[in-house]
Write a structure and sequence with these properties.
Layout (H helix, E strand, L loop, with lengths): L1 H18 L17 H7 L1 H4 L23 H4 L4 H10 L19 H12 L29 H7 L4 H4 L14 H8 L8 H11 L20 H6 L4 H5 L16 H10 L6 H4 L2
Helix pairs in contact: 5-6, 9-10
This protein binds heme C (6 copies).
């Protein structure tokens, strides 16, 4: 009886796995190979290793080693659409090293989704599957002179926002990090083999700042001091959205007078005209 019961359960799971659009990814069905395993073993294990530990033979001579998929702290903050982009378009599409090629083709979208689910199973601590945060940008995010990723820096590696935007706490402008601040890590981190980081090294060698494209801007007749808002305990994400999940930063909030006033009224901050219009 129990043998049959198991077989039926297995069949039902097989049907769910092959037939349902909303199946749970990241969880191998009991008694069955994960639907992404065959693809992984064929296309990925050569570099990423059979168990995701970046110890495949193809990784031995790479200038930049693949990250260990076993490290949940590093992998779990990476959203599915980021992994999808990396696998379908190649790692260079997000500014990572071009030695990781594009896989669409040969893989279909479905195979890529399955392989993402399989990669998630390696993570320790386990991947806490959660719905993607939907944010609606005001305008498409501009392309920046270097393909710098907040997902990699603020999401995966959890570098504090204010380590790079050091003015936020003490002045009007949050500010952008100097080339020197970037080089504090990148003299060593990924120093060889990534063209985006080579661009950073060229700016450093030529003592030139990076011409980042400005995204958020209130008109000149408006005064917006970051420090007062940070001191009031507002998280960056209140106004900028979940930046640590954005490959390229886009403006989320309207930055209109109505938007400022609405929050000021709600939080009993001043509504005095001259406060915002000196
Ligand atoms: C030729 C070797 C190679 C193969 C084959 C390869 N990768 Fe990679 N992969 C890399 C390298 C190298 C990186 C790291 C790039 C970097 O950090 O700049 C990487 C990065 C990644 C990342 C990004 C992880 C992160 O922390 O941002 C994912 C996801 C990934 N690979 C998945 C896959 C999958 C899935 C396959 C198979 C379909 C695959 N890779 C095949 C070499 C490879
Ligand atoms: C505290 C350390 C640290 C600082 C500061 C830092 N990075 Fe990184 N950066 C990393 C790490 C770690 C990676 C991941 C390396 C890898 O997987 O190849 C990375 C990856 C990258 C990449 C490839 C992935 C991507 O698209 O982001 C680029 C490009 C990059 N950094 C540029 C910069 C620039 C420009 C700055 C300054 C604005 C900067 N980094 C500051 C640690 C740092
Ligand atoms: C390693 C450095 C680094 C870290 C950490 C970092 N940023 Fe950034 N940030 C940058 C760089 C470089 C730019 C300019 C390029 C771009 O837009 O991606 C930027 C741009 C921005 C912008 C857009 C600025 C504009 O022109 O309007 C916002 C908003 C922002 N970051 C918020 C954050 C928040 C919030 C965090 C933490 C969750 C964070 N950043 C963490 C380096 C960093
Ligand atoms: C109360 C809303 C609010 C909060 C909270 C907030 N910002 Fe901003 N941010 C803005 C507005 C409005 C602008 C445009 C300001 C301007 O044009 O002078 C802006 C602009 C920026 C810019 C580009 C211009 C500059 O100031 O350098 C960066 C970078 C930035 N914010 C990062 C951050 C970071 C990091 C945090 C958290 C430490 C943060 N912001 C918190 C509203 C906010
Ligand atoms: C999410 C809530 C929120 C938003 C959005 C917001 N503010 Fe504020 N703002 C505050 C709070 C809270 C304070 C009060 C801080 C205090 O009392 O110390 C404040 C204080 C200020 C101050 C007082 C500074 C001083 O020196 O007294 C100015 C100026 C200001 N905001 C301008 C703006 C402008 C301009 C915008 C829109 C572009 C804006 N704020 C959007 C919450 C917000
Ligand atoms: C909390 C900050 C804040 C306060 C308080 C505030 N404003 Fe504004 N005001 C703004 C911002 C931000 C803009 C820019 C809006 C935009 O570009 O959509 C603006 C724009 C304006 C404009 C130009 C509108 C246009 O369409 O060009 C006028 C006029 C104005 N404000 C008048 C006032 C008056 C009068 C008061 C007092 C009753 C006041 N504001 C209080 C933030 C504020």
């Amino acid at each position: 009886m129990s043998r049959f019961g198991g077989a039926i359960a297995g069949l039902v799971l097989a049907l769910m796995v092959s037939g349902s659009a909303t199946r749970v990814i990241g969880q191998p069905a009991k008694g069955l190979a994960h639907p992404g395993k065959a693809t992984y073993d064929q296309y990925c294990a050569t570099c990423h290793g059979d168990t995701g530990q970046a110890d495949g033979p193809g990784a031995a001579n790479l200038p930049i080693k693949p990250p260990p998929f076993t490290d949940g702290r590093l992998m779990n903050p990476l959203p599915d659409d980021f992994l999808f982009k990396v696998i379908s378009e190649g790692a260079a599409a997000v500014g990572l090293a071009p030695q990781m090629p594009a896989f669409r083709p040969p893989l279909t979208d479905r195979q890529i989704q399955d392989v993402i689910g399989y990669v998630r199973t390696f993570a320790q601590p386990p991947y806490p599957a959660r719905p993607a945060v939907a944010v609606q940008p005001r305008a498409p995010a501009p392309k920046q002179p270097i393909e710098f990723s907040h997902i990699v820096h603020a999401g995966s590696y959890r570098i504090d926002c204010q380590y790079c935007h050091a003015g936020a706490r003490r002045s009007t402008f949050a500010g952008l990090p100097s080339v020197e601040r970037c080089m504090g890590c990148h003299k060593i981190v990924a120093a060889q083999g990534n063209p985006e980081i080579q661009k950073l090294h060229e700016h450093w060698n030529q003592k030139q700042s990076i011409p980042w494209v400005r995204i958020h801007k209130v008109p000149n007749y408006v005064y917006f001091p970051h420090k007062r808002h940070v001191a009031a305990g507002l998280a960056c994400q209140t106004c900028h959205g979940p930046v640590e999940t954005m490959q390229r930063v886009a403006q989320i909030a309207p930055l209109s007078m109505g938007w400022c006033i609405e929050c000021h009224a709600r939080r009993q901050a001043s509504l005095d005209c001259v406060m915002c219009h000196h």
